[in-house]
Amino acid sequence: MKLASIYLALSLAFAALAGFAIAQDADISTLRPTAPTEDEMPPPMRPFQDILVQEPRNYPEQPPLIPHDIEGYEVSANYNKCLSCHARAATGRSQAPMVSVTHYIDRSGQVLAAVSPRRYFCTQCHVAQHDVEPTVANTFIDIDTLLTMPEE
Amino acid sequence: MWSLIKKIWAAMRRPSVHFSLGFLTLGGFLCGILFWGGFNTALEMTNTQEFCTGCHEMRDNVYADLQATVHFTNASGVRAKCSDCHVPHEWTNKIARKIAASKEVYGWLFGTIDTREEFEEHRLAMAQREWARFEANDSLECRNCHSEEAMDFSQQSPRAVDAHERLLGTGEATCIDCHKGIAHTLPEMPPETAMLHGLPATGGSADANAIYGYIGSIALHRD
């Protein structure tokens, strides 16, 4: 009798899990509400966040976020608009944080006079922020929070 | 030749025989209006977007650049056309600029900028000419629309407020000093040219490559 009820509970749990998986499938399909072949109205673009405070990093190696508008900033072979404020020589006038010294080091460990080519394209790692609800949920936990969490 | 000039002078000095004074003064007045109006209308026509982008060298290069910028599409729907920034609005300076622009007609006639490559070749010189003009007139063409008195700093982003108060307000810098490349992409610049214009030596230009080996890469010290 007891065993039977456990079986029942387990099978119910599996059914629920399967149902959940199907429901999740349905959720995923809603990320793009129309078929890929159909034209859809994209949601309106939100303006860039432009704030004076710097978001803390979620982990030490995280490239810091860009706290300001970067609309129309040119980063090309000819010119790098970001560096017009963040380059070492420009920070006096701009009072912007200098591009970290790691960006001036080439792959053989030499410190260069200007930003190393491998670190030239800023938005490869650094991103500006929009004030929007995340489309996909995120379960990331900060390492300090994780370490102080009670063991289960 | 001298006798001809004398003849014309004599004719000019002689009072009119056939036409009344009223006809001559009123006629002169009307013709003056027609000429002046016609002249300014023709001048204004050379200030239109259609005129500027009528040739492929403008349409395919600088106009294509402009279309991606905030001066072409923006929230308030105010558009700056070519002449708003590149031709002074005040009459005397406008005429001076138009006379200087006759050189551009030569360039067009002889096909100085026929291809994209030729455009890239001349781009730095052209950009420097415009930067120098803006620096000399304290960014007058910017200020035709963007007046410092009309700027509400409380509505600007915090960084903009700081820069405008610290640099623009004190007269340490003029608009173009920080806003180069606001309406067009920037030219390929050798590092020393960039620094001359207050821009960081960042580019991956061929000249930079020649000087630095590759993009700005010169080792400060060696083991």
| Number of domain modules of chain A | 2
What structural class do the secondary elements of chain A suggest?
Answer: mainly alpha
Taking pLDDT < 50 over at least 5 consecutive residues as the criterion, the unreliable ranges of chain A are none
Average pLDDT across residues of chain A? 80
Which superfamily, in CATH terms, is the homologous superfamily of the largest domain in chain A?
A: Flavocytochrome C3, Chain A
Fold and architecture overview:
Helices cover 27% and strands 0% of the residues of chain A. Chain A has 152 residues and is mostly helical. Chain A has two domains: 2-42; 45-152, Flavocytochrome C3, Chain A, domain 2. The longest helix of chain A has 28 residues, at 2-29. The model of chain A has no long low-confidence stretch (mean pLDDT 80). Chain B is elongated. The N and C termini of chain B lie far apart (84 Å). Chain B has 13 helices and no strands. Chain B has a domain at 26-156: Multiheme cytochrome fold (Orthogonal Bundle), CATH 1.10.3820. With 223 residues, chain B is mainly α. Chains A and B meet through loops of A and helix 10 and helix 12 of B.
Structure summarized in a few sentences:
The complex is a heterodimer of chains A (about 150) and B (about 220). Chain A is mainly alpha-helical.
Which characteristics define this entry?
heterodimer, A: 152 residues, mainly alpha, Flavocytochrome C3, Chain A, domain 2, 2 domains, 4 helices, B: 223 residues, 13 helices, 0% strand, elongated
